[in-house]
């Protein structure tokens, strides 16, 4: 009887030790899994701020794109700075902490590439636009096309040195053989938005802007689209700035700009896929 009692005690101790060891392993495994999950979540949820320098003509479309991107990437804060592509280029060259640049022409992007300021392999040619001639709604000046531009007393164009639409305008009027006559009547805007505003408020007789900008105002009339072959194609490239501290997230945003969802938004505002 004592022998049997001793055996029962030994078996009970063995089972207690075994169960205790199993529980210890389970607790260790669970703790390890929790730690891995926590690290992963912390990495994914890390707040990221991206500064996007974009051509002024992109402002309306980007406002909607920002909303969509934030919904899918809640840890990312997008801050936009808009202006003439040439001015934004200069700011980047001077060390502005920009993560992504999207210009309204290839010229400014190429200049940054040649200076080694663009992250290699990050550039994407995303959109195209059209250049149009506009007049105030109800204009009686009699302008029917680009060739009639000299009927204007005052013409609004973008500054050719920094505003791509100003460069395209010069190409068009050179193509038509009237660049000097046009310059004698020009007032230059700091970006395409200013040119549009001057025409919409009837401060000038005519102006040259992008089709997308013209579509955003009901106070102007589109008279004509630039004649075929009269100016360079209006391409919009985007790229990551080499000095970006968030290059991976910046590239993710550039890639998002080429997605079907984003292209459909751009098209709604008058752009076309490149």
Structure report:
- There is one protein chain.
- The chain has 274 residues and is α/β, with parallel strands linked by helices.
- It folds into 2 domains: 48-128 and 235-273, Periplasmic binding protein-like II (D-Maltodextrin-Binding Protein, domain 2), CATH 3.40.190.10; 131-225, Periplasmic binding protein-like II (D-Maltodextrin-Binding Protein, domain 2), CATH 3.40.190.10.
- It is 45% helix and 22% strand.
- The chain contains 10 helices and 11 strands.
- The chain has helices at 2-44, 59-72, 85-93, 106-114, 164-175, 179-183, 192-200, 211-214, 247-256, 260-268; strands at residues 48-55, 76-83, 100-102, 124-129, 131-136, 155-158, 186-189, 206-210, 220-225, 234-240, 272-273.
- The strands form 2 sheets. The protein has a 6-stranded mixed beta sheet. Strands 7-6-8-5-9 form a 5-stranded mixed beta sheet.
- Helix 2 (59-72) links the parallel strand 1 (48-55) and strand 2 (76-83).
- Helix 2 (59-72) runs antiparallel to helix 10 and helix 3 packs parallel to helix 4 (106-114).
- The N and C termini lie far apart (93 Å).
- 36% of the residues are buried.
Give me some keywords for this one.
alpha/beta, 6-stranded mixed β-sheet, elongated, D-Maltodextrin-Binding Protein, domain 2, 2 domains, 274 residues, 22% strand, 45% helix
